[in-house]
Design brief:
Layout lengths: L6 E8 L4 H12 L4 E7 L4 E6 L5 H11 L2 E3 L4
Antiparallel strand pairs: 1-3, 1-4, 2-3
Helix pairs in contact: 1-2
């Protein structure tokens, strides 16, 4: 049995400017099922999410929206 490789997806998020932004977005994205790690790049305006399976863009968009920010595009 082979171990499944984690899936890493990067999303553009607008409106993040400070540590509070990082905490809010990280908390919401971390609550999604299967998410193992969230890394925020304030300067680049991105959130990189490591999960055990690909995440639905709609779920990511809803989580970012709940945190008070906006997901731009779909993610890579």
């Amino acid at each position: 049995m082979t171990e499944q490789q984690p899936v890493v997806q990067t999303y553009a998020v607008t409106g993040m400017t400070c540590e509070h932004c990082i905490r809010a977005v990280t908390e919401e994205l971390s609550a999604l099922p299967g998410v193992e790690e969230v890394r925020i790049d304030l300067a680049g305006g991105t959130a990189t999410v490591t999960s055990d399976a690909p995440l639905a863009v709609e779920s990511v968009r809803a989580a970012v929206d709940e945190a008070g920010y906006e997901l731009v595009g779909g993610g890579a």
